[in-house]
């Protein structure tokens, strides 16, 4: 019998969930759910688990650590998982994870309900695939999004960023699209994106250290609202004043 057929504990994914949030994200979310269910770490009314990226790679050996990190960041941006640091030592940066099950349930609307999720189940062996991009390219990029999300002006936003920062970012990049979607889900508008780009370009473009942060993952990340509402200041910032990397 071939070793490539299921003879070990498989990874599972519901295709309808993969269509909504991405295949990589659906696989990781399902795996986190598996471990959270049996967790004994109850903190602030939620069950939590903890893991390093290297340890996650043992469960997803067909992905690189960077792919796993991007996938987890995407789940954070979508609000589907909550992360924290509940380690005894604050020097220990091992991430803790739990799931926002209310946000997951909100993915199901009345017109697109999973009536029989077990009939819509795919299984992936942990030994399948070696290319860390192959699974990500299997599912189209959210083809069944709501009409409002399909109208998100990603191309216009990235073109505006490129024009104002002398950059050449691509609007087709998965991480960029996810961060823009996440901000639109929170109620921000095209004008908000342009305002943030204008503010930070004025502040950082000619700064030798900060200019490198004029990038989608920084501008459109979790600090987006802070950037949008920042007050004008004559203070000269140093790179060490910020923690901008995801």
Automatic annotation (TrEMBL):
<feature type="region of interest" description="Disordered">
    <location>
        <begin position="110"/>
        <end position="150"/>
    </location>
</feature>
<dbReference type="InterPro" id="IPR011741">
    <property type="entry name" value="Phg_2220_C"/>
</dbReference>
<dbReference type="Pfam" id="PF09524">
    <property type="entry name" value="Phg_2220_C"/>
</dbReference>
<protein>
    <submittedName>
        <fullName>Phage replication protein</fullName>
    </submittedName>
</protein>
<feature type="domain" description="Phage conserved hypothetical protein C-terminal">
    <location>
        <begin position="157"/>
        <end position="229"/>
    </location>
</feature>
<feature type="compositionally biased region" description="Basic and acidic residues">
    <location>
        <begin position="139"/>
        <end position="150"/>
    </location>
</feature>
């Amino acid at each position: 019998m071939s070793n490539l057929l299921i003879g070990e504990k498989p990874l599972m994914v519901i295709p309808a969930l993969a269509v909504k949030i991405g295949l990589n994200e659906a696989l990781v979310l399902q795996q986190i759910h598996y471990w959270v269910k049996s967790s004994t770490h109850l903190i602030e009314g939620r069950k939590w688990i903890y893991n390093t990226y290297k340890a996650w790679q043992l469960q997803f050996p067909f992905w690189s650590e960077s792919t796993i990190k991007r996938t987890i960041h995407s789940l954070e941006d979508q609000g589907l998982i909550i992360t924290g640091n509940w380690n005894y030592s604050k020097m220990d940066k091992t991430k803790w994870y739990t799931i926002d099950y209310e946000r997951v349930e909100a993915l199901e609307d009345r017109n697109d309900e999973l009536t029989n999720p077990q009939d819509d189940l795919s299984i992936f062996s942990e030994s399948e695939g070696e290319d860390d991009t192959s699974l990500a390219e299997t599912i189209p990029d959210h083809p069944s999004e709501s009409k409002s999300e399909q109208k998100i002006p990603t191309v216009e936003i990235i073109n505006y960023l490129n024009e104002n920062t002398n950059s050449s970012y691509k609007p087709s990049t998965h991480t960029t699209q996810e961060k823009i979607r996440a901000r639109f889900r929170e109620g921000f508008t095209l004008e908000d994106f342009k305002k943030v780009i204008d503010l930070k370009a004025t502040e950082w473009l000619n700064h030798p250290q900060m200019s490198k942060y004029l990038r989608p993952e920084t501008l459109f990340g979790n600090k987006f609202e802070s950037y949008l509402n920042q007050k004008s200041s004559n203070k000269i910032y140093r790179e060490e004043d910020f923690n901008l990397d995801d």
